[in-house]
Write a structure and sequence with these properties.
With 363 residues, this protein is of the alpha/beta class. Helices cover 40% and strands 21% of the residues. Helix 6 (166-179) runs parallel beside helix 8 (206-222). The two termini are 26 Å apart. It binds iron/sulfur cluster.
């Protein structure tokens, strides 16, 4: 089940914690960037069958104007067919740039899922994160999506924000549940180099973040959400098909600066710099790459196992993978971190917060 990812690297302002490949103050590049995307999509369609899912992420895709959004949809449809016929098509939005007109345009274009960033419902925490929209603006944007007819919406929430306490977090969760989204994703704050938070020497709070997350799980389960991946909760049938393909080690194609692709063990990503992406997309060789590598059979097996363990149902292992990792699987099971039943392996609840330490055992 191949997925198509399209990266729009433009943001109005850089958030204090953000180390994604996104840039503020480069709106003048949007038009040439769309031209470059068109070229890359035309080239890709000769090697890439029609996708099942589409994810337009960023950056802030909702920063594009209405005409630019129309151009984006039409360049994708020229190469890959009608968006409305895809199994799932997600558009990432931020509240400050998502107008009711854009919501209506996206719905009419066949987009059937929107993921919208909130992080917290307290405006002082949103300010601390450097987010542009207030909670009230978020609610307006969310309502405009419902009014436009979207019935599959994700909200992002964050744990471990400086000055956030469990009460704040649970208040945010309550506000989110009152809005009745179909999907909720959680992120623990990480402080990366070259961010405002790193310059301010803001510390991470992994234990506080884990405590908040633990409080959220029963509340979400009581509200009818299924905890289906380490950081993701969905109402039944609303799991992200696009992301499930990543976790199944499926093939996907990435278009745009920094976008990663995976095809049968070959992994590559386009160059991060949008200006260089635009320049090189026009050459016969296509966009310059940030990296390109072919996974060895052993790496593919390890990756398959680690990705599968991200899902709370775990993974049914093929014989060769099970045999290759049996000693390590048994050791982690004896430590109470993995549950093994036949060939099915999954993380125990207690291991959800230290999943990276578990995954390191397989590298
Ligand atoms: S809106 Fe998202 S991509 Fe843009 S700066 Fe903030 S966190 Fe980064």
């Amino acid at each position: 089940m191949p997925g198509l990812y399209v990266h729009l690297p433009f943001c109005r302002r850089k958030c204090n914690y953000c180390d994604f490949a996104s840039f503020a103050g480069k709106d003048a590049l949007i038009e040439p960037y769309l031209e470059a995307l068109k070229r890359e999509a035309e080239r890709a369609k000769t090697i890439f069958a029609r996708p099942d899912t589409l994810y337009i992420g960023g950056g802030t895709p909702s920063l594009l104007g209405r005409e630019q959004l129309k151009k984006l949809i039409s360049l994708l449809e020229d190469a890959f067919g009608a968006v409305k016929d895809l199994k799932e098509s997600t558009f990432e939005a931020n509240p400050e740039s998502l107008t009711p007109e854009k919501a209506a345009l996206l719905k009419a274009a066949g987009i059937n899922r929107v993921s919208i960033g909130l992080q917290a419902s307290q405006n002082r925490l949103l300010d601390r994160l450097g987010r542009l929209a207030s909670f009230e603006e978020f609610v307006k944007a969310f309502s405009s999506l419902r009014l436009a007819g979207f019935n599959n919406l994700n909200i992002d929430l964050m744990t471990g924000i400086p000055d956030q306490n469990p009460e704040n977090f649970m208040d945010s969760l309550k506000e989110v549940l009152d809005l009745a989204p179909e999907h909720i994703s959680f992120y623990a704050l990480e402080v990366h180099e070259d961010t405002t938070f790193a310059a301010e020497k803001v510390g991470e709070a992994p234990e506080a973040a884990a405590d908040m997350f633990e409080l959220a799980i029963p509340v979400l389960e009581n509200a009818g959400f299924r905890h289906y991946e380490i950081s993701n909760f969905a109402r039944p049938g609303r799991e992200s098909a696009h992301n499930l393909n990543y976790w199944a080690q499926g093939d996907y194609l990435g278009l745009g600066s920094s976008a990663a692709s995976h095809m049968g063990g070959l992994r590559r990503a386009n160059i991060n710099d949008p200006e260089l992406y635009i320049k090189t997309a026009a050459t016969p060789e296509g966009p310059a790459l940030e990296y390109s590598e072919t996974l060895t059979p052993a790496q593919r097996k390890a990756e398959k196992l680690m990705l599968g363990l991200r899902k709370t149902d775990g993974i049914e292992l093929a014989d060769d993978i099970f045999i290759e990792f049996k000693v390590r699987i048994d050791k982690l099971a004896a430590q109470g971190l993995l549950e093994v039943s036949g060939r099915r392996v999954k993380l125990k609840k207690e291991a959800l917060y230290i999943s990276n330490a578990v995954f390191r055992e397989f590298v």
